[in-house]
């Protein structure tokens, strides 16, 4: 009896929280671009606070008398329908759902830990970073060729960017996002929101750095692009340098796009670029050279309406 009640409460709480989380995610998805355009990237990133607040509201404890009434109804139903028949049926149903959820959560956590372990091994070999790693005491990790690959100005830009992540507590936020992904592994909206939230996180971080750092937007974007081309995939407990998240101004892009050599492969990190960097350039962007202006919009040809004789 007690096991059935606990299993049913856990399963119902998970489903209720995911329904509220999904509704909050859809709300943020509809508002984030408008808010970013009107109020800036940092306010748009703050919109994601709606999601954990919705989850906490769904998990708020119900009143005691409602739980007592449900227990009384369950007891009366089991007494009238047969000796433990409905109780065993409910126990098997809730136990199956609970075991399925726990199995998926364990597998999702194992996948995240495996990615973290691979990143730590690359870090020891000097092939990881620049990135901020850790949750309780985050640290700045650099590759072995950090001093030779980047100039003094580029290192200043990278340090300013990672320091902004540290001061904003983004490492702890990303760990919380990863925990939600583990608990809500079956919800595709949660995984979509995790990717877009980290994208908005980078936009907000870039906006804060560009307010304080005396550097041009083009130079900033080129430096961050340089770190991306040599970076590997990051685990949940690391904040690295994603593709440049610099808004475009006056129809010109901040930096040139990487190109694939004839018969070769794309540069490292190209396939991980979000859709936002491709769509911001407009149609035909991958085929334009670095210094050429964007193509002018096509105008529809005038239509000729024949006269009636």
Any idea what the radius of gyration is? Answer: 26 Å
Shape: flat
| Cα distance spanning the termini | 89 Å
Main beta sheet strand tally, sense and closure: 3 strands, antiparallel
What class do helices, strands and sheet pairing give?
mainly alpha
pLDDT < 50 runs, ≥5 residues: 64-71, 77-83, 241-292, 304-309
At a glance:
The chain has about 300 residues and is mostly helical. The chain contains eleven helices and three strands. The longest helix has about 40 residues, at about 85-125.
Q: Could you characterize the architecture of this molecule?
A:
The protein is mainly alpha-helical and 309 residues long. It has one domain. Helices cover 61% and strands 3% of the residues. It has 11 helices and 3 strands. It has a 3-stranded antiparallel sheet, covered by helices on one side. A hairpin with a 5-residue loop joins strand 1 and strand 2.
List descriptors:
309 residues; mainly alpha; three-stranded antiparallel beta sheet; 11 helices; 3 strands; 61% helix; disordered C terminus
What's the topology here?
Elements: H1 2-39, H2 41-46, H3 50-58, H4 64-81, H5 85-124, E1 131-133, E2 139-141, H6 146-149, H7 152-168, H8 170-183, H9 188-212, H10 217-229, E3 238-240, H11 275-279
Antiparallel strand pairs: 1-2, 1-3
């Amino acid at each position: 009896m007690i096991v059935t009640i606990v299993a049913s409460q856990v399963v119902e709480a998970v489903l209720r929280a995911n329904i509220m989380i999904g509704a909050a995610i859809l709300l943020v998805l509809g508002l984030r671009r408008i808010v970013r355009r009107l109020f800036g990237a940092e306010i748009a990133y703050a919109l994601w606070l709606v999601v954990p607040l919705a989850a906490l509201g769904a998990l708020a404890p119900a009143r005691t008398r409602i739980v007592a009434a449900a227990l009384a109804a369950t007891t009366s139903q089991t007494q009238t329908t047969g000796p433990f028949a409905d109780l065993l049926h409910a126990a098997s149903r809730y136990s199956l759902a609970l075991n399925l959820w726990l199995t998926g959560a364990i597998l999702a956590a194992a996948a995240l830990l495996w990615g973290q372990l691979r990143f730590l091994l690359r870090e020891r070999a000097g092939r990881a970073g620049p990135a901020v790693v850790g949750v309780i005491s985050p640290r700045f990790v650099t590759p072995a060729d950090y001093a030779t690959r980047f100039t003094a100005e580029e290192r200043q830009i990278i340090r300013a960017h990672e320091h902004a992540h540290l001061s904003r507590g983004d490492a702890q936020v990303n760990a919380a996002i990863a925990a939600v992904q583990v608990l809500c592994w079956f919800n595709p909206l949660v995984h979509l929101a995790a990717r877009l939230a980290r994208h908005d996180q980078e936009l907000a971080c870039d906006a804060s750095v560009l307010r304080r750092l005396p550097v041009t937007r083009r130079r900033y974007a080129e430096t961050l692009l340089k770190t991306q081309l040599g970076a590997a995939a990051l685990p949940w407990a690391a904040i690295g340098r994603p593709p440049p998240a610099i808004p475009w101004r006056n129809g010109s892009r901040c930096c040139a796009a990487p190109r694939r050599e004839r018969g070769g492969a794309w540069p490292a990190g190209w396939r991980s670029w979000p859709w936002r960097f491709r769509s911001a350039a407009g149609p035909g962007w991958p085929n334009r050279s670095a210094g050429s202006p964007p193509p002018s919009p096509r105008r529809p040809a005038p239509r000729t309406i024949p006269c009636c004789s």
